[in-house]
Design a protein that fits this description.
Strand content: 5-15%
Oligomer: single chain
CATH class of the largest domain: Alpha Beta
Helix content: 25-40%
Largest sheet: 10 strands, mixed
Structural class: alpha/beta
Order of helices and strands: HHEEHEHEHHHEEEHHHHHHEHEEEHEHH
Shape: globular
Distance between the termini: 35 Å
CATH architecture of the largest domain: 3-Layer(aba) Sandwich
Length: about 500
Amino acid sequence: MHFIQPARHTRRAFLRRTGQLALTGAALPLALNLAAMGEAAAFGATDYKALVCVFLSGGNDYANTVVTYDDPSYNAYSTIRGGGAGQAGGGIALGKASLAATLLNPATPLADGRQYALHPAMSGLAGLFNAGQAAVQLNVGPLVVPLSRAQFNSKDRKSYPLPPKLFSHNDQQSVWQSSAPEGSRVGWGGNLGDLALSSNAGNSLFTCINLSANTVFLSGDSAIAYRMNTDGAVKINSLASSVYGSSAVNQAMLELVQQTRSHALENEYNRVTARAISAQGTVTGALAGLPATNAPFNAFPASNGLADQLKMVARLIAARGNLGIKRQVFLVGLGGFDLHDNLITQQSTLLGLVSNAMTAFYNATAALGVAKQVTAFTASDFGRTLTSNGDGSDHGWGSHHFMVGGAVKGKAFYGSPPPVSLGNTSAAQDQWHVGQGRLLPSTSVDQYAATLARWFGVADSELAGILPNLKNFGPAASRADYPANLGFMA
């Protein structure tokens, strides 16, 4: 119960303990009374806000996504990636001329003349950045504590712990989403959902909505991920149409799978089935008759599964009033980024899909009048090596990510630009690389998530219960509020 850790007497901890007690049938009257008095409520939201996680599965190559552009840095990038000393590109280096149209122009120039451009296929996101609706967080990744390269190489893992199972796809996806390796049962998106449930009392089931893969991100102690597809609510196929060609049999089946039963397991199964059928009807009804949100997506007519997911997110946001929802967390995603080979060709296609989908989604939120209330952000297993393996790059660590929305302090880079180097020939470079151009993150996922969570409405006192490593970052780690704010949200 954390009796000797006052900083952990949070509402999320209360929700967790109450849920655990309820599962054992031993929930205390005190707990129930506190819940009745609103102690378990997170924030009494009166406005609407949504976070949308765009997960790029496989580990996106950072160096060809946010591409260093100033001559000294570009020349080093080209040399390392097999393009030689010129600027025409080659190997897995992009030609500099191809980057001119996606050059990023921050409101405050970076130090030492550093410049970046986006991949040539990302003109949409480059336009959002230069117009002030998007920003880039440089070199972010999972960390337990801040690390230098010397500390990374140290054998003192007690003082300098590393994230578990570095460079493993499944584990690093889980660590990004939950601060723990594969097998974790609660993600920080679900933790946010736990705190938002009270603001969505009418239809709390729709607080966390997953349109992507089966991952831990949206699993909370109380919140659960409601699964949808790009066509709407997922139907129970055997009950969605007539059975054996008979509507009467279909109706009988519907009644059988929703009846109250004396056997505990049968009853629970029917209760969950009834909830699924009810939820399907609720969300289908809420979406019916809404104004179309397709127009921004029609500007990018190529087949795009990520855009289809975000189009459904836009429809659900448009239905927020019908659903009675004040806070939502969404997960969408795109796979295929594990490019050990064919990097130049395949990443171009993938990043074009990402840019077009996120640009269309921002434009859809603007058309709905909620651009300042919706923030989309990217995440991925890890970045990749700066070195080439011949036709691609290998598993890395830190990476660059995007934040998009009307509340984002856009037209800006956050964090420090890492040097483009393999040799670690200076003290500054020695802090950044841990072999093959893998970036040692200078910003933790916990800080990234905390900045988004604060905007979402989470109190500083709640952050420790959501992001367990956050206490290790910021200038005053001993304080209860752990003020690690990266500053990219208004």
